[in-house]
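Support case: user asked for a sample of complex input and structure output to validate their parser. Sending the pair below.
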Amino acid sequence: QVLLQESGPGLVRPSETLSLTCTVFGGSITPYYWSWIRQPPGKGLEWLGYVYYSGSAHYNPSLKSRLTILADTSNNQFSLTVTSVTAADTAVYYCAGGTPPDFDSWSQGTLVTVSS
Amino acid sequence: QSALTQPASVSGSPGQSITISCTGTFSDVGGYNLVSWFQQHPGKAPRLLIFEVTKRPSGVSNRFSASKSGNTASLTISGLLAEDEADYYCSSYAGDYNYVFGTGTKVSVL
């Protein structure tokens, strides 16, 4: 079982860009799928998108214009960028592995708060 | 895309069986055999319980079973234990490389 660990700021100002990185330990990111999922406080899960190790990515249509997910095979990492954030983007962000929707490995989650 | 519909809460006594429904449309749950179920305890990351509608990953108790009929998928927990008290989410492929989660169900063990 691989271990996933997110890194990135816990506070982002409104209108700025949220950036998170997920490092995969105990296994290679090739040849698998890697996703980002978020959960606003007290609310349900929302799939943001996934990247295949080769770099091909697909996004939640409602957020597509603001999201970028990239794979970095040399560092065994993948990343998430969300532009023009608002308070509605405040959430616990999880990175997850597995062929969607079979997300079989998860990070512990990191709370990102959007506030000035 | 709309979230799949789950009951907000389901409860049962220890030893009983409960079933959680997950209702979508022909564009997601009804159109593909790609439904998963997750268990989430408070403050923890979700855990995969079921994949491809009915399959259990290794290490998941056989007290968890699932099925699908039309646009509705269902998760059954048999022999309810106190440790089963958690939130449960379904997830489905929704076509065109898109995936959607359910609204979530809080399971209480009375």
